[in-house]
Amino acid sequence: MINEFKKTIPRFVKNFYTGSLKSYKKISYSQCGEDLIMFSLVKKFPKDSLLYIDVGAHHPKRFSNTALFYKNGWRGINVEPDKNNFKLFGKRKRDINLNLGVYTKEGIMPYFRLNESTLNTFSENEAREYEKKHNFKIIAIDEIPIATLNSVINKYNNGIFPPFLNIDTEGTELEILQTIDYVKNFPKIICAETMGYGGYRSTNENKELINFLLGVGYLIYGQTGLNSIFTHKKWINY
């Protein structure tokens, strides 16, 4: 009897973890679970129009704040300047994928590629800081075409800002956010990197960016160790 009971314990534990707990499992593609935090907001929007514009999209899955939404049937615009990373977005066939950068004006800008591609940036100061303080290396400087956020939206979504803006441009986020018309045409949800790189953890909260968005009508919906999620107070109704 005791031996038989001992045999049932491993089966019970296995069934519990593979069965009972499986129903509670939630998959996140984000670096710090941002997609799961935003899902209750995003599910309010229909799937027959563009949901997101991802500026500095990086990768279709790795650390992506939009992959979960794509997987669940939504679509949007991915903007990725790195030519190697951009090729991977061929997997996101419902999306509009653009191999360029976004800044405050159109033209050509030097793009600093590092040996960790999540840190690639148009900001030379940021790139040099990564080299000096964190032992990363600049492996290439490419000349990349630049568009403004408004020109991308005008061309690919009839001038209508998608509900969700994800932005991670390693140092130029605030300048880009300052180009948006927050009276007439703006995103309802913004996820922006607000913590600087600090090795094993993020440090140095970008209070200037946070205060700017609070000043133009946004509320902080959630924060992780890397990003802040904002919702506009004219829209929020959860």
From TrEMBL:
<feature type="domain" description="Methyltransferase FkbM">
    <location>
        <begin position="54"/>
        <end position="219"/>
    </location>
</feature>
<protein>
    <recommendedName>
        <fullName>Methyltransferase FkbM domain-containing protein</fullName>
    </recommendedName>
</protein>
<dbReference type="InterPro" id="IPR029063">
    <property type="entry name" value="SAM-dependent_MTases_sf"/>
</dbReference>
<dbReference type="InterPro" id="IPR006342">
    <property type="entry name" value="FkbM_mtfrase"/>
</dbReference>
<dbReference type="Pfam" id="PF05050">
    <property type="entry name" value="Methyltransf_21"/>
</dbReference>
